[in-house]
Amino acid sequence: MKKNLLLLISLMLIISSSVQAKSVIGNQHQQLLLMISNDWQATQGKLYQYEKKQNKWQLIKGSTSVTLGRTGLAWGLGLHDKQVGQYKKEGDGKAPAGIFTLGDAFGYLPDLVTGLTYQAMSKNDYCIDVNGSAYYNQIISSEQLGEDAIKGSSEPMRRDVHLNNDQVYKKGLIINHNSENISGEGSCIFMHVWRSIDKPTAGCTAMEETHITSILQWLDKSKQPIYVALPKAEYLKLKKDWGLPTVK
User: Fold this and answer.
1) What is the DSSP string of 131-158?
2) Is 239 left (phi over 0), alpha (psi -120 to 50) or beta?
3) Are the beta carbons of 16 and 31 closer than 8 angstroms?
4) Among candidates 244, 226, 229, which has minimal Cα distance to 31?
5) Which residues contact 236 (CB under 8 A, 6 or more apart)?
6) Helix axis angle, 232-242 relative to 2-24, nearest 10°?
């Protein structure tokens, strides 16, 4: 009887683990951007593009160099379950780790070739990184909501206009970290153009303009693309449960 009970418990745990894995990345997610860094402190990583074909991840493009947060990575708030370890906070300089859906593309240009919805930014558009703001972690327009709504934000979306022709937001996309917009839990997380390979970000994932251009053209919102960012040790630990491909 005791042996049968232990066997039943083991079987229930296996089934539970399988269901959990399917609930994290479902069959509806047909495109995957996978970023792997050496460790939690790394400020650089490698990005891989996959597409699901016959329910298996097929490599589309691999080993694109990216820069990460100036202090590395910490767990973010995304599709994944609660994890053990340090979580991202506002202003910590860390890029979020975990599984995230992708939002709209954005940029300086009037239009852009992409399978995502595109938002052309104006000088009035800001992403609000001010703790306690009613608009925390949201892109808003001062023209629509007034100057008080953007007061204190350090994230003008037209950095070329406000910050000495800065080009990092010329082309980019939103990573849906902290989708409930919880104040203090990290805001304005993007994928965008880098300054150079040796200059990390404030918490985003950045790369050469040619690479972000290619990714924006490849992404298709109807395929519900996701972004997964993990240090190598965590990737190896979670790969099977999260249904991630093997990186060679």
Assistant:
1) TT-TTTT-EEEHHHH-HHHHTT---BS-
2) alpha
3) no
4) 226
5) none
6) 110
Encode burial over 219-238: b for 16+ CB neighbours within 10 A, e otherwise.
bebebebbbbbbbeebbeeb
The model carries a pTM of 0.90
What is the amino acid identity at position 238?
Answer: L
Q: How many angstroms separate the CA atoms of 232 and 39, rounded? A: 6
Torsional sign, CA 26, 104, 209, 235: negative
202-248: pLDDT as tens digits: 999 999 999 999 999 999 999 999 999 999 999 999 999 999 999 98
Q: For the segment 138-156, what is each residue's pLDDT rounded down to a tens digit?
A: 999 999 999 999 999 999 9
Question: What is the spatial distance between Cα 104 and Cα 102, in angstroms, rounded to a whole number?
Answer: 7
Q: How far apart are CA 8 and CA 41, in angstroms?
A: 41
What digits encode the pLDDT tens for the residues 27-43?
Answer: 999 999 999 999 999 99
Facing residues of 37 across strands?
45, 231
CA dihedral of residues 220, 221, 226, 227 (deg, nearest 10) = 70
